[in-house]
Amino acid sequence: MRGKELRIVFMGTPDFAVASLKALVENGYNVAGVITAPDKPAGRGKKLTESAVKKYAVEKGLKVLQPEKLRDPVFLEELKLLKPELQVVVAFRMLPEVVWSMPRLGTFNLHGSLLPHYRGAAPLNWAVINGETKTGVTTFMLEHQIDTGKILYQSEIEIGDNETVGDIHDRLMFVGADLVLKTVDSIAKEKVRPVAQSELVVDEKIKTAPKIFKEDCKIDWTKDVQVVRNLIRGLSPYPSAWANLVHKENGRTVPCKIFFAQRVFAEETASPGSIDSDDETYMNVACGNGWLEITDLQLSGKKRMNTASFLRGFRNIFDYRFE
Questions:
Q1: Which positions ≥6 away from 246 have C-beta within 8 Å?
Q2: Which of 9, 144, 199, 247 is deepest in the core (most CB within 10 A)?
Q3: pLDDT band of 5, cuts 50, 70, 90
């Protein structure tokens, strides 16, 4: 059987998943239905907002289901009526067995890491934060424990020294879409040979990718300069690294998001968080063992800007330090 003959149900929500769904649709695969998150209120007006996957699916006239609960009997009956032979999951939520075991060929997931490393909710972020030089995507069959199923295929990419997690996300969307097509075709032709994740780890600890919280994003300027830089890159543009600008005299505190920084080599040293600037074009911040030049940042309630624009509007930067 050819992959294009299979009845496929696609499950996903954000932009990252749209590339894979689009690849299936535009290459003539039989997408019988799309499962995505319910519409959610967003913005100041709390207007109901559709997921990126729903917007694309509706545009292409695809059947869309948006269950609140995946064990809901009504949803399960609707899913059965789609008669899925294979389910493809990209950036969706954890599925109960009654859902992932439904198709005769099972359900596979596209994950944003080279499994078994970086299982969890934020694999791309943690790969950059930890200073990895490569990452990738993996397709694997769903089983009971999250992100532990047998691996089908992987695609690897290099992480550039100046790339942010946003850059990696945008590249991997399309690498992942190609891998989804390859996986569907191989499953249809019964050519795939799943490999247990335990076979890929030899005498090393598995790196994990837990959910990122606000406190994980706060910059500790006492740390190694490269560690701080990797944290900033690994959280840019979202959820973004942050620190407080604190006035040395009156303690006024100004929250600040930082999106990019370059290492600056200088002989002089200063206490972590100290600022060196010409008050016009550049702003360097001392770390535990070096300096970083902040190039893109955002004050609370303001737009993202480059350092020159920031300094034009923020007077007396020498009266402050980062904490």
A1: 252, 253, 254, 320, 321, 322, 323
A2: 9
A3: very high
